[in-house]
Amino acid sequence: MNDVMPAANDDTVTTGIGLIPRATYRLQLNAQFTFQHATAIVPYLASLGISHVYCSPYFRARAGSMHGYDVVDHNAFNPEIGTREDFEAFVDALRAHGMGHILDIVPNHVGIGSDNAWWMDVLENGPASAYAQFFDIDWQPANPTLAGKVLVPVLGEAYGIVLEKGELQLKFDAGTGTFAVFYHEHRFPVDPRTYPYILDRVNVADAWRQEFDAVRTAFGKLPACEDCTADLINQRHRDKQLLKELLQALCDHQPAVVTAIEEALHTLAGNESDPASFDLLHTLIEAQAYRLAYWRVASDEINYRRFFDVNELAALRMEVPEVFEATHRFLLELIREGKVDGLRVDHPDGLHDPAGYFQHLQEHIAAARGVPFKSGSLPFYLVVEKITAGFEKLPATWPVHGTSGYRFVNVVNGLFVDGASKGRMDRVYRTFIGEPVSWPQMAYDAKRLILETSLSAELNTLTNRLVRIARADRRTQDFTFNNLHLGLIEVIACFPVYRTYVVDEVSSEDRRFIEWAMAGARRRGSGIDSLVFDFIRLVLLGELPATTDSMRRRIRAFAMRFQQVTAPVTAKGVEDTALYRFHRLVSLNEVGGEPETFGISVRAFHADAQARVREWPQEMLATSTHDTKRSEDVRARIDVLSEIPALWRQMIVRWQRMNRTRKREIEGKPAPGPNQEYLFYQILLGSWPIEELDDAALTAYRERVEAYMVKASREAKTRTSWSDISADYEDALVNFVRVTLERREGNLFLDDLISTQKRLLRFGLLNSLSQVVAKLTAPGMPDIYQGNETWDFSLVDPDNRRAVDYDKRRAMVQEFAAPAEDSAAYARELLNSLEDGRAKAFVTWKTLQFRRTHEGLFRDGGYTPSRVFGAQAAFLCAYVRKCGQEMVLVVIPRLFIRLLHSRELLPVGEEVWANTFIELPKGFPEAPLENIFDGAPISIVQHEGKRCIRVGDALAHFSVALLQSKPG
What we know:
By secondary structure, this protein is of the alpha/beta class. It has a seven-stranded parallel beta sheet with strand order 15-14-5-2-1-19-16.
């Protein structure tokens, strides 16, 4: 048993509320839950034991945004969330309760469109825009028709069809002196240098012809977009604004000018009955710094880097100092004023150089707060949304406090999965769907699919860069585009992690992953010349001989861009495709999860905790997040199936038979197919509401499941998808859900489902109680997702953004705060009434209160696995948190069906835990102990020559224990 202590950091800077949060509470802010709503629940969160409210992004986002990750202005609050005054009131309320808040920020990308001034400037001015360098745009792509242009794939049909339908309309805004092309709600500014093409057609009166002609001629003399030196950019920007103002003034003083311009626009408008009449407008549009295109063109030809495959989210070049300054100005102002106390950085894997960004961010924060900064210090609490594989470590050089907790989500969930049943669950799944399944193959196939479809444009851009490198050397100039394209597909599809972090040199860790990918690609790409793989390997490792500095820069640029491609391919291929195809046990299909890992041992849980104490002792711990595919309580219920594979097989065979007539046949296949049906039954068992459902509640639940199943099917991309919706399949799927969950006479399935889930429910709820204690006491800083302090059976977003009943939760905490006459009896009563949710809320509240009074123990304490032995040792995880002389013993049961043999017992007392002991570590206080959840005394006994406690005493009245030396 190793007592692991975290390394101290003498360079941290504390504030009045402390640098490291004690516990956070995530809020999803939007028009339905604003700053004012958040302010109203601050007293409740304080009483719960929360130290920091953790806010979703609240800078100005797209109108109607429910998540805030589509920011369009980093320097203003989102008006749908609240005003500056609302924000100040929120911060004041936090401070009044001794609390702070953490903000989720989005440095990787912005929402683009008419509401983004930077993007509009780029469309208007092309490479000559003052913001051209803000976006990662390839101004010289392989397609020569896009040279100097941005592809804008927003049209609902092919460009020519849209044009000749008259859906592209040229309009003039007299109030600003500007022209723009409109397509429904989209606005595309016209390059001022092309204004003469329009103004030449304006029939002007002699009285103002000279003034009008002077403005018209001056527009035509603006520097061209391609002449984008710094001086010319500044001149163009200054002059175009002046000319627009002159045209505006002319319109203000001469209303007839506006009339004449409108008449000229009519001559350019075209007539649907005469396709040739659109030639003039087409010529004008072709002269712009953008190419309007059918949205499907994006996957092949888009030439700006996006967030994954979302056309409306464009990546930012955060490595450019001006971009960093422009996007962080307001944030740093809030930090300087002491109104933001920590940050969570979204999607750092999309950044050109994440390590450099974090360093830059910490330096600027230190400067804003007026504190000294030196390399290696952590002056501000900072966690990152980074997904690591089980064999991967977060780069130790990053100046952050760790990740936002996705690894912990999967580690702690694995504790409640019976790993011994993997083979049997494999057989159940394989038999039900009628085909062999392999998670590694499925993940590989899904990544290839993404490379060949939604992210093929990014792959093409990468291949073109590699072709230019190859053709610069006579030894590699014979490598064709197709050879290199196929080679890159294999390497990326075989990449074992989201990305590497090569900058100036290749670390040993990065080299290992590159060599891993190359070995897999060689095995799978048997038809590809091995010299192609040799070449790619040398380029990625920076070992390709280069005779010029220019070539060395080109090789380095390719390696760094390659990293920005593997991450979205893995995210879209694994998270958003393969995890929706592989359904053996879907509680394992979580963000950052590896479904092939079927549960983890107690020893593995301890090893993970010890590693976290050594390396990232203050990182965030999560169990539910805005990104998770299922809430923590849904997963805990589905985990139970791993303990009963034979019973599970009987259930689904019976249900399949009951529902066989409720399917339709679409394209010769049943709809839904067996794989989706297998998922459906797990989702029902995991999310079925605890309360009795009247007709309205049943309808509401059914609609939630219908929406989920459609989304899951689109993500799977087998029978329908977001880009190619099969209305027939989706209609059949929705109908299947509807009729199977319809309350009517003769629906044997619904009655059977309700009866079955009731029998399994309490085991899932017990899993949840244990999981909560693990999160709140393991090394790290725990986060609670909104509403999850009590039972929450939400599915993937937007289901997990439903309104939370805070009145109900507030009443629970008020009940807990009133001392019970008999703590043990009260604890047992909560356990007997699991369904009402108070037990989970009580465990959360009680543990957070304990963290509040023992903050140093959990923030700085070490971690010692406890030896458990005896009859039921396999069903316990126990450990000691220690800081100085302060110690607490945590006892977490698991695998409750096996423990209780499905009997109607509570997992308490000697009847369950007879002859099972936990050995106390050296130095543990001699005084009797008590479980903070029930207040019952626990004696220390000698057993086999060791100081121990009986588990039956520790868990005499409640299913989990947090044991401290009894006060007094």
